[in-house]
Amino acid sequence: MNDSPSPVRNVRQHTEQSNCELCVHRPLCLGAAATERIAGPRIRIERNASLFQLGDPVDHCIYSVRSGSFKIVSAAPHGVLQVTGFALAPEFLALNALGLERQPCSAVALEDSEVCRISWDRQAFKGRRQLLRSGLHLLLSKEIRREQHTALMLRNTHAEQRLADLLLSLSQRHAANGYSATRFRLPMSRCDLASFLGVTAECISRLIVKFKRRQLFDLDRRDVTLLDPTALQQLVAGQTPPGGALAQAA
Amino acid sequence: MNDSPSPVRNVRQHTEQSNCELCVHRPLCLGAAATERIAGPRIRIERNASLFQLGDPVDHCIYSVRSGSFKIVSAAPHGVLQVTGFALAPEFLALNALGLERQPCSAVALEDSEVCRISWDRQAFKGRRQLLRSGLHLLLSKEIRREQHTALMLRNTHAEQRLADLLLSLSQRHAANGYSATRFRLPMSRCDLASFLGVTAECISRLIVKFKRRQLFDLDRRDVTLLDPTALQQLVAGQTPPGGALAQAA
DNA sequence: CGCCCTATTGAATATAATCAACCGCCGTGG
DNA sequence: CCACGGCGGTTGATTATATTCAATAGGGCG
Fold first, then answer.
1. For chain B, what is the HEC assignment?
2. N or C terminus: fewer CB in 10 A for chain B?
3. Nearest CA in chain B to A190
4. Do the beta carbons of residue B86 and residue B69 sit within 8 Å?
5. How far apart are CA B163 and CA B204, in angstroms?
6. Which of A76, A74, A70 is nearest to A46 (CA)?
7. How far apart, in whole angstroms, are the C-alpha atoms of residue B27 and residue A134?
């Protein structure tokens, strides 16, 4: 992680294309409820280009990832950049920018990708279904839970369990799209993985070796094959470092 | 942390009291914008009682903490309970439950506290100002950012920096309420602190000693006096463990 | 007054960081 | 076409931060 991740051309690569009216994924937009025409035209972002960057003025939009994938990069207090999330195909970006003047993070395409913009400010919502706003509520709340899960894993697991959890998460998200749950390609570098998981790239390397030896998965370059998802799940659910339980406390 | 934190009486202690119409904090509810009558009557929760518990059916409400404080407790994959957040006086609870059937976490009062319920489901919103929903959007997005900050700290800082960050955060939140930024009482146990920061209680103890020696603060039982907030901030902004930067990547 | 729980302290251990070297791939350019 | 250079990734040896286990101390409450 002292070395750099994929280089980024600091250029927005927006190319207007087919309109989202025709988009096959449209029902997924804000849940099945939102069938209104709410999304703008598709925007193409090429690999390593950023959809928006930390400090950019916010455009009062969230983004729906239609194809491809992104990494979210934020700045730690001391200014060091870190990967704080990944957004795969039917997921959303910029849910954390509502009410801000400046983007709190960057979104960098991990491969050639497409997104749609969805405005969330008052004017844009006028005349549109209330359901849409409800959908946004649900989306935002879900995102809170996702972040909480991340924080949970960072608090009380070893690197081993974090990696297993991420792999399973990617697997599920692929499966939800109708792709194979056991074979897929990692869109991100080892360095990005490490940054997101809060460990060093060296540590990731060693973990991969360890996991391969245990026949948990196979991994060539960026192509994963989960050999024993059950074992991975058991690993995630295994014992944890920082102390034990918080007694009853619930 | 192998030992238990404050014991909890698993009983809801709801006592209807003064109506929120009269609440002095009301303008803070959903930002200054929401001056509507949106909140229900006050609910009193006594120390160590839980407002809601993991697995409870959700009541389609968020809660505004009017006085006192809460800890949020969630279950890690293996079932171990962990403190995933603290909610101080004019903050909100259950923002992560929208769209769920069951509460994903528990909220336990750290002292005798009061909350107001605010319904977020469709019927309850009827006839109420749209601003309110906008306010909720902003609130939810802000909560996402808060969680992201937590995850950020957990990823690439040592325990030392995490504790400093939390103390400064508590300080700010107190100051925002008009209380002293340098002298306040910690409502939570060392154990809760440790759980939230992702370290052991022993580690917290040692850190406290270390910080005292450095004249960063004074701490007796649960009473903190920040002696050198600037130094604390510098500490937070100091160098970090997991590797260095993510190159340009932004 | 004494018990229990929380907090603290100490010594040994472990997971992951750090530093450093090396390798293999890929695109560039001679 | 092949050599070069850069980058991403891997491996090794050492070190450090924080865990673990264990024992003790201090406060609050009955």
1. CCCCCCCCECCCCCCECCCHHHCCCHHHECECCCCCCCCCCEEEECCCEEEECCCCECCCEEEEEEECCEEEEEECCCCCEEEEEEECCCCEECCCCCCCCECCCEEEECCCEEEEEEECCHHHHCCCCHHHHHHHHHHHHHHHHHHHHHHHHHHHCCHHHHHHHHHHHHHHHHHHCCCCCCEEECCCCHHHHHHHHCCCHHHHHHHHHHHHHCCCEEEECCEEEECCHHHHHHHHCCCCCCCCCCCCCC
2. C
3. B246
4. yes
5. 8
6. A70
7. 23
Predicted confidence (pLDDT) at residue B130 exceeds the cutoff of 80: no
How distant is the Cα of A236 from the closest Cα of chain B, in angstroms?
Answer: 7
A127 at B interface, C-beta within 8 A: no
Q: Do A148 and B144 touch (CB under 8 A)?
A: no
Residue whose pair of structure tokens reads 């070893």 in the numeric block: A158
Q: The whole model's pTM is what?
A: 0.84
A201 touches chain B (CB under 8 A): yes
Q: CB contact, 8 Å: A194 with chain B? A: yes
Find the mean pLDDT for residues B154-181: 93
Number of CB pairs, chain A paired with chain B, less than 8 A apart? 261
| pLDDT of amino acid B238 | 80
Distance CA A160, CA A206 (A): 10
Q: How far apart are alpha carbons B165 and A231 in whole angstroms?
A: 37
DSSP structural state of residue A48: T
Percentage of residues in chain A having pLDDT higher than 70: 75
- Here the tokens at position A210 are 């360890």
Give the per-residue pLDDT at A14: 42
What's the angle, vertex CA A210, arms to CA A205 and CA A214, rounded to 5? 145
Rounded to whole angstroms, the distance from the CA of residue A50 to the C1' of nucleotide C7 is 49
Of A residues 209-228, those with CB within 7 angstroms of nucleic strand D are 209, 219, 222
